Amino acid sequence: MPEETNITTEEEWKPSGNPWLLLLPVITATFMYALDETVANVALPHIAGSYSVSSQESIWVLTSYLMASSIVIPMIDFFCKFFGRKNFFMLGVFIFTIASFLCGISTSIGMIVISRALQGIGGGCLMPMAQAITMESFKGEERNKAMALFGLVVIFAPILGPVMGGWITENWSWPYIFFINVPIGFFCIALAKKFLEDPPYAQKQKNIHLDKFGFLWLCVWLVPLQIVFDKGNDADWFNAPWICWFSAVALLGCVLFFYTQIKGKNPLVMLNVFKDSNYLTGTVMLILINAVMLASVAILPQMLQIMLGYDAFLSGVAIMPRGLGSLVALAFFAVVGGRITYKMYGIIGLSCLSIGGWMLGLLNLNINPMNIAIPNFIFGIGLVLSFMPITTLSCITLRNDQMTNASGLQNLLKTIGGAIGTSLVATMISRFSQIHQVGLVKNMTELNSNFADRLQMYAGSFISQAGDMLNSAYMAGKMLYNQLIQQSMFCAYMTTFKIFAVACFILIPFMFLLKGENKTEQV
Asked: Is the pTM of the predicted complex or chain greater than 0.70?
């Protein structure tokens, strides 16, 4: 009987004050963390130049952040019970803020990578706690509105990141993309201290034990895995012995981590939430959507800078229509509200992601800004209308006391998916470029009348520089080959966007597996 009474109290708990005030620190922290997932994307060439390292080495500035976030996320439930959730939330913001300052004053690539990892440790805990607080503090239609706002921030911040990063890098200097977090971070701590409160199941508890072996195997799993995905393409994947060894270690760590979580008495994460079919299905869908979102945000500015000559700021601005699309989608949700089901919102959203991705896959080198803006706008609509209902439906059948653990586990897997997507997309571009190059080079023969005419035309234009026909023909052939390389790389980007579109389209039938909601039901 006492156990049942306790569960009822937990389920009926609600904030003593206005729950919308709780969202002030929650949304601020979520925005900072999500923004920093992508804010450094367009600044990587500048960071690499500052430390005289290659672009491949500078990628660690992105992946160290995601990897550290992944490691800390499963420990959220333990730290919430050890410190109390409100105290741990403020500690996470404080670590994130101090690490941001250290990133800005870094004097070497090693220092900024370590600082970014520390930033990921502080920030990785913020989004799962923010999601849990938002879900717990509201009921019924109010919860739907709060989760819509939360989903908008989660989607809009990574889209805004390249724009802010590009503008700050071009007009000030790249360290300021980290310095801007400092005043916002301390402001967020003040808001959290004033408005946040802990429910009974998230207060400081005694005799809390840390699953040390679970944490050890988590590190053994994720650190080698991220190294493999970051360096695999450069090392020619499994043709390199060390890639095979690192992959084996990561696989062993993965198996032992999940074994300890199933058999352990005090695991880092409670895997029994996967018994909930909504949670399992929704989490798998969110992993793929997050991978597509972060991978597309990573390669689109890169494509615009390499293929079309955009600078850092303009390549960031090109992604802004996604943000506008997100705002339009939120307005649509506010107007339509509960008149259609969350499943229908998800289907519309995934369809928009597919259409937007396919339109990006149909571009060519002779495009204007609107050719990029329109598919990005549709993509932005799709992100909100898919992310928001799937996130809500995945947790809608869980109890309140399961929310923190479930949110942490879900965000762990989403972050891993995003990190893998960001790393693998470079391999996809490289491989598809080679495939398209093999296909296009077959046309570079004098038996092809178009090639022969183009070669003769270019050779004639180079005759004054080359001095004789032999050298001018060589220069013309080299110019055509460079165009071939450019075209094959551009085709690789287009193929990658089409794969994103197909992946999102495949997710549509999974919406029908999510249950527990209809257009009149209040949860």
From this structure: yes
